[in-house]
């Protein structure tokens, strides 16, 4: 029967060409959308690697002041740490979690070269951001001896540089010594892909890394924030201070990821609804035009259910033709590693899109095919 | 073979009731070649549809090989139509998007006959009606007579015991009509029971028995 249906569809390929293009285009749009969703969901399921609740980023701008900046930053840090509301405070580069800044550099080890995100932080950063260290230890000032600067790397960088080797104690890029490994660190939020990352100990004498990360006690409110900002501006006249609550920054970062996805989802949703309505209309029309054939098939031995199944099978065969063409395009993405995204994401998206397309065409065919099953053969044959 | 007792068929709409067949009693024996004649609208096709299990009578009983079919479900009726009955229509009812051989194969599809034997049987049936050189053609490439021969091949491919022909020569000229009639007579000689609706007295005279209907009632 399937062969018969294939012949029937193939012989009517001209009449079905628009429908084929419609299903093919829907598949590709759906594939794009599901790839995006699968990519983001997979990222979301990976742990963030730190706690953003009750964490604040304090940006310090010295403006016109150019003297003894490092000492002033250190003084501010000590002052902030002294507040009973502050559980922990540390200094870092301005690419703090959920910020729009980023910094990266190449890391070399044994002829391997990996591009990694760089974060310059002090020895309290792991405590402030609640980052669990899974191997070795978070660097301390005492680790900064000799010509090597102590660094902590994340699991991703460890895998890419060392594979199964133990990384602690190893020298990388001829200037860093690995003291520890953390699991993940997705500074741009849950939707960010887990990328190689490296934490380098801040130089206490450097005036550049002028951002303070603090962890406050739960329930600490804006009254404290105002008091702290006022105290800092009193300490360093002419400096500007800006406080970002990481919970708010996280929302902004999420919106940057989710808004395009939602827009794409809405546009694709409309497209799929149009395709579904189109299919529904075409099938209804097809059944009206093929009443004689339905009557004939009933006369030759088809049951009502058989007729219904035939119409559903026909649209499934048509969808299969369109999907096969669509797969030729979609399979290029995992094969050619487009956008440097894992092949598994594309393959999952292809599988989901195929199932959704089959689901939609089956749903669209159900009602018209039931109508076809109810056609009285004697009446249909007489009409012809 | 086919026994109709007190058959009545009424078509009802919300406001009109039409009596298409009234008190029809008919017994068709195995191997008979019967023609049904009557003016347009007298119920010939309705009677043929009831005999072909395509329609149900409003009253009365239909027996096929001694079995009352009124209690049969759709699936059983479909199986009977497929195995016991072959249909030939005035307007051929060929599927234009399928080749001649694919059209002839259709009854065998509903018996789940495999591809190769299906094609062999279809080719045999086409050879029987003299169309073995047209198997790859499409209905649009055939003349009226050839189309009707394809329809006959389709009707006989499953070797049914009964052939119901609804004005098989109605759309053909007299020469082609005679040719079709010869084929039907040949099938009857081989043992098939044939019931044919016709308007043509000459064709009807070539059958064993003539049934005349008038306003839904059997008059001869």
TrEMBL record, chain A:
The keyword Transmembrane helix applies. Keywords: Cell membrane, Membrane, Transmembrane, Transmembrane helix. GO terms for cellular component: plasma membrane. It is found in: Cell membrane. Residues 52-222 form the MacB-like periplasmic core domain. Residues 266-377 form the ABC3 transporter permease C-terminal domain. GO terms for molecular function: transmembrane transporter activity. Its main location: membrane. The keyword Ribonucleoprotein does not apply. Belongs to the ABC-4 integral membrane protein family. This is FtsX-like permease family protein. It comes from Larkinella humicola.
UniProtKB/TrEMBL annotation, chain B:
Residues 2-219 form the ABC transporter domain. The keyword Lipoprotein does not apply. Keywords: ATP-binding, Nucleotide-binding, Translocase, Transport. Signal peptide: none annotated. SMART domains: AAA (SM00382). It comes from the Bacteria. InterPro entries: AAA+_ATPase (IPR003593), ABC_transporter-like_ATP-bd (IPR003439), ABC_transporter-like_CS (IPR017871), MacB-like_ATP-bd (IPR017911), P-loop_NTPase (IPR027417). The keyword Membrane does not apply. Pfam families: ABC_tran. GO terms for molecular function: ATP binding; ATP hydrolysis activity; transmembrane transporter activity. One of its GO terms (cellular component) is membrane protein complex. Belongs to the ABC transporter superfamily. Macrolide exporter (TC 3.A.1.122) family. This is ABC transporter ATP-binding protein. It comes from Larkinella humicola.
């Amino acid at each position: 029967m399937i062969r018969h249906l294939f012949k029937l569809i193939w012989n009517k390929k001209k009449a079905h060409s628009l429908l084929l293009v419609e299903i093919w285009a829907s598949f590709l749009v759906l594939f794009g959308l599901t790839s995006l969703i699968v990519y983001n969901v997979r990222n979301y399921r990976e742990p963030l690697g730190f706690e953003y609740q009750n964490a604040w980023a304090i940006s310090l701008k010295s403006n016109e002041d150019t003297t003894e900046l490092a000492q002033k930053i250190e003084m501010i840090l000590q002052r902030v740490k002294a507040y009973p509301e502050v559980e922990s405070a540390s200094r870092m580069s301005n690419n703090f979690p959920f910020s729009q800044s980023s910094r990266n550099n190449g890391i070399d080890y044994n002829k391997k070269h990996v591009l990694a995100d760089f974060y310059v932080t002090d020895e309290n950063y792991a405590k402030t951001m609640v980052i669990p260290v899974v191997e070795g230890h978070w660097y301390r000032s005492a680790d900064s001896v000799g010509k090597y600067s102590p660094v902590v790397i994340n699991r991703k960088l460890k895998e890419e540089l060392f594979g199964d080797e133990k990384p602690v104690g190893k020298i990388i890029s001829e200037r860093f010594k690995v003291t520890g490994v953390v699991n993940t660190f997705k500074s741009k939020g849950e939707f960010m892909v887990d990328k190689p990352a490296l934490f380098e100990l801040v130089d206490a004498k450097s005036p550049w890394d002028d951002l303070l990360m603090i962890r406050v006690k739960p329930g600490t409110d804006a009254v404290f924030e105002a008091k702290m900002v006022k105290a800092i501006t009193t300490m360093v006249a002419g400096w500007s201070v800006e406080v970002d609550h990481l919970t708010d920054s996280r929302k902004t970062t999420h919106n940057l990821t989710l808004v395009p996805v939602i827009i794409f989802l809405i546009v694709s949703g409309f497209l799929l609804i149009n395709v579904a309505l189109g299919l529904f209309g075409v099938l209804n029309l097809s059944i009206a035009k093929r009443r004689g054939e339905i009557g004939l098939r009933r006369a030759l031995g088809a049951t009502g259910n058989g007729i219904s199944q035939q119409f559903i099978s026909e649209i499934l065969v048509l969808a299969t033709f369109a999907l096969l063409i669509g797969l030729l395009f979609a399979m290029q993405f995992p094969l050619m590693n487009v956008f440097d995204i894992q092949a598994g994401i594309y393959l999952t998206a292809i599988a989901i899109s195929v199932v959704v397309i089959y689901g939609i065409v089956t749903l669209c065919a159900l009602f018209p095919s039931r109508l076809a099953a109810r056609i009285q053969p004697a009446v249909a044959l007489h009409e012809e | 073979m086919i026994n109709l007792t007190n058959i009545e068929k009424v078509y009802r709409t919300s406001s009109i009731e039409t009596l298409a067949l009234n008190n029809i009693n008919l017994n068709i024996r195995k191997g008979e070649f019967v023609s049904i004649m009557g003016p347009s609208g007298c119920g010939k096709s309705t009677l043929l549809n009831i005999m072909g299990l395509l329609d149900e009578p409003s009253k009365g009983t239909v027996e096929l090989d001694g079995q009352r079919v009124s209690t049969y479900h759709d699936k059983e009726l479909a199986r009977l139509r497929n195995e016991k009955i072959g249909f030939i229509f005035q307007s051929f009812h060929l599927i234009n998007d399928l080749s001649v051989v694919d059209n002839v194969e259709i009854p065998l599809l509903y018996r789940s006959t495999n591809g190769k034997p299906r094609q062999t049987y279809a080719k045999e049936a086409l050879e029987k009606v003299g169309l073995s050189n047209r198997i790859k053609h499409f209905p649009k490439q055939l003349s009226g007579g050839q189309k009707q021969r394809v329809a006959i091949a389709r009707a006989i491919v499953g070797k049914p015991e009964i052939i119901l022909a609804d004005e098989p020569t109605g759309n053909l000229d007299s020469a082609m009509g005679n040719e079709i009639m010869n084929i039907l007579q040949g099938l009857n000689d081989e043992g098939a029971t044939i019931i044919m609706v016709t308007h043509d007295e000459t064709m009807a005279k070539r059958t064993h028995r003539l049934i005349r209907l008038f306003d839904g009632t059997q008059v001869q």
